[in-house]
Amino acid sequence: MVDKTQKPEGVQLKRQIGLVGGVAIVSGTMIGSGIFMSPQFVLGYVGSPGASMLIWALSGVLSLFAALSYIEVGTIIPESGGEFIYILRIYGSFPAFFAAITFILLLKPSSIAAMSISIAQYAMAPFYPGCTPPQLAVKCVAAFCILIVAITNALNVRVALRVQVVFLVAKVISLTFIVIGGLVEVIRSSTVFEENFKVENAFKDTQYSLSTLGMAVFQSLWSYSGWYNLNYVTEELNRPEVNLPRAVLIAISLVTTLYLLVNVSYLTVMTPKELVASSAVAVTWGNKVLGSWGWIMSVAAALSAFGSLNGTFFSAGRVCFVAAREGHMPDILSMAHVHRLTPSPALIFTTVISLVVLIPGDFRSIISYSSFTAWIFYGIVLSGLIYLKIKKPDLPRPYKVPIILPILVLIAAIFLVLAPIIDNPQIEYLYVASFILSCVVVYIPFIHYKLCPGVLDRLTAFLQLFLEVAPAEKNL
Q1: Nearest one of 145, 103, 135, 139 to 306, comparing CA atoms
Q2: Which tens digit of pLDDT belongs to each residue from 49-104?
Q3: What's the alpha-carbon Rg for the chain, to the nearest Å?
Q4: How far apart, in whole angstroms, are the C-alpha atoms of residue 6 and residue 471?
Q5: Chain segment 231-266, per-residue pLDDT in tens
Q6: Considering only CA atoms, which of 60, 67, 58 is closest in space to residue 405?
Q7: What's the CA gap between 184 and 315, in Å, rounded?
Q8: Cβ(13)–Cβ(341) under 8 Å?
Q9: Phi, psi of 327 (to 5 degrees)
Q10: CA dist 432 to 20, 215, 353, 372, 438, Å?
Q11: Of the candidates 35, 287, 372, 442, which lies 20 to 30 Å from 266 by C-alpha distance?
Q12: Closest CA to 406 of 424, 383, 390, 428
């Protein structure tokens, strides 16, 4: 039985993330499966190359503004946990619990599942030329990737960071290769490039409905997802007041530039119809430019997505860990390994939930509805920042942004949440809302009134001994 009257001596997660590690976590998570899979969906929704490029540029600017706003929140509230901890400190326990459950059980596992699916699809593409790999095989390979990343993160933080840096270098080289390949085609007087970007053709057949624009932005923002990842591990970041803004600015500038150039390269060798019809746009590009060596792009895309999966998993475990530390999840999830100093129980829990989400999930639907849900909470955090700027301007904040930035991103978040519902209501949005609201049933008895059965204490004690973990203290 756990003695609740005596607080056991805790351990701390070390500050092991420097500027390079911070850049790798942000940009290494952002550059993943999205840029290799989302371009055909973005173009399919908006209908024209010109509108597609505008969507990619707009998403980069929106991600930058949102990230800059998050930096200020992260310096005011210098704790790990991202949206959960910010909502908890600004709005209180009740709305924070909604964020915790949604991110831990829905958003983070969905992202991990979608990335693992993309890894599997690209890794298996060379073995199934001209056809789609069997779904069972794709899911098995995806599950294997999740397990590899989980083991890596649970064993050692430094190893996980090294993996992130190595894969970041690999994916930047891959995208640079695509950019150079497109440039070579332009020099060769590519007729496809000229047709796609003629003034009269660039915006031909553009779709202007709110629903299609909203879904196109969701797809492109999926490729930029990760701009917030460093806020989940603030307590493990060296000199966060300095390294947080530097890492984010470097990472997002690099990623946005690469994404725009890569999309131009795709449209240099493919017509809009070819791009939209492609099941793996990077592979189609590789087959057209590299010929029999096109399979190299499948390998590059799989490696890129694996690095993104590693970064997402790294941050996902911290959300669960911090929520448990604040009493919003079982105590065992707030503990860290006594020797490795990793939040291994939270990482194991994240692994299990991700594998469950993987079973029925498919890439396109996961992105659409998880992005819709995520922007609800991004909007709540940004409204909290606006509140702090107006009502509590004297709070110590080493970094400030003009209030217009969070206001603009908040307006964009409201549009992204409401536009698809108003223009094209679907039952899935009701499912998402029902899932979030159902958290009330859990919050009132178990969090507010703390009705915790004694058997959970015995289970916590057993798992604590079995996993060699101890309660972890904040590193502030």
Answers
A1: 145
A2: 888 999 999 999 999 999 999 999 999 999 999 999 999 999 999 999 999 999 99
A3: 22
A4: 12
A5: 999 999 998 888 999 999 999 999 999 999 999 999
A6: 67
A7: 38
A8: yes
A9: 85, 15
A10: 37, 16, 17, 9, 10
A11: 372
A12: 383
Contact 177, 30 (CB under 8 A): no
- Tokens at 471, concatenated: 């309660």
- If one counts every other C-beta atom within 10 angstroms of the C-beta of residue 332, the result is 21
HSE-up (13 A, CA, CB side) for residue 30: 33
Torsion of CA 177, 253, 416, 112, to 10 degrees: 60
Give the H/E segment covering residue 198. none
Per-residue 3-state assignment (H helix, E strand, C coil) for 396-453: CCCCCCCCHHHHHHHHHHHHHHHHHHHHCCCHHHHHHHHHHHCHHHHHHHHHHCCCCC
Burial (CB count within 10 angstroms: exposed 0-12, middle 13-18, buried 19+), residue 46: buried
- Per DSSP, the three-state class of 9 is coil
pTM greater than 0.85? yes
The two structure tokens encoding residue 392: 């509590």
Classify residue 52 by burial, with Cβ atoms within 10 Å: 0-12, 13-18, 19+.
buried
Which of these, 57, 53, 117, lies nearest to 280 by C-alpha position?
A: 117
Give dist(CA 202, CA 42) in Å, integer: 15
Residue 362 has pLDDT above 70, yes or no: no
* Look-up of token digits 């351990």: 11
How far is residue 415's CA from residue 38's CA, in Å, rounded to a whole number?
20
d(CA 338, CA 318): 17
Distance of CA 434 to the CA centre of its chain: 23
As given in the structure block, the two tokens for residue 261 are 């150039």
CA angle 87, 418, 366 (to 5 degrees): 75
Q: The tokens of 325 are what?
A: 């530390």
Cα dist from 176 to 84, 263, 267, 382, whole Å = 36, 12, 16, 34
Which residues lie below 8 Å from residue 338, measured CB to CB, with a gap of 6+? 11, 468, 469, 470
